[in-house]
Design a protein that fits this description.
Structural class: alpha+beta
Number of helices: 7
Strand order of the largest sheet: 4-3-2-1-5
Low-confidence stretches: none
Helix content: 40-55%
Number of strands: 5
Largest sheet: 5 strands, antiparallel
Radius of gyration: 48 Å
Shape: flat
Mean pLDDT: 74
Oligomer: single chain
Amino acid sequence: MSTTVCDTTGHTPTFLLFGRELRTIDDVVQDFKSVVRNDNFIAEITPYLKRFATITEDIRERIETKQDQRKKQYDKNRRPVYYFPGHKVWVTLHPISNANKKTSKFMPKQDGPYLILTQKSPTSYVIASLTNTSEPIATYHISALTPFKDMDTSPVAPLRKIGRPRKVTSKSTQNTHVPSPSTASTAISSRTIHPSTKATTATENSSDSVSSQRRRRIHRGRL
């Protein structure tokens, strides 16, 4: 970890702490004379300190640049929120579990409403209770405040029922022809067969089968 180059500073933590990199076993065993000569040469102390001071200034500027880049990336999709004196807000809570009181799991995440008194900085506001507006309670960051909305306020984006939408039929299918009761009864009566007709049809079918059998016998006798 101490010999890994940091992306923000551009140097290793060892170099920032001691002003030099760590000596490895290979450096001590193979090239010990050069290590002693470079570290203990008195004439190079002053230029070395000046060079390290310049490196420190470069590291400070690099850190500030990285901070600006990360802030820009973090606030890329952020929408600015402005509060004015008299606005009502919710305050985000950070409850801690207590055996004598309540557990933080079931406590509300926000409390309020509270009243905005003044703006202390571009990102912080002083709030007060609705019962005593003249006495400020505390100063909160804008990230801990949420606009208060009355109960009669309609939602900005109303929720919809989750599921597959209902199938919409075309007008041609809706205007299909429905037969009248008289037409339906006539069609049913025309399809209904009287019992006597069924018996006559059965008799004719049986006589036809008998005659066909006789014809087959006569034909066989001739052969």
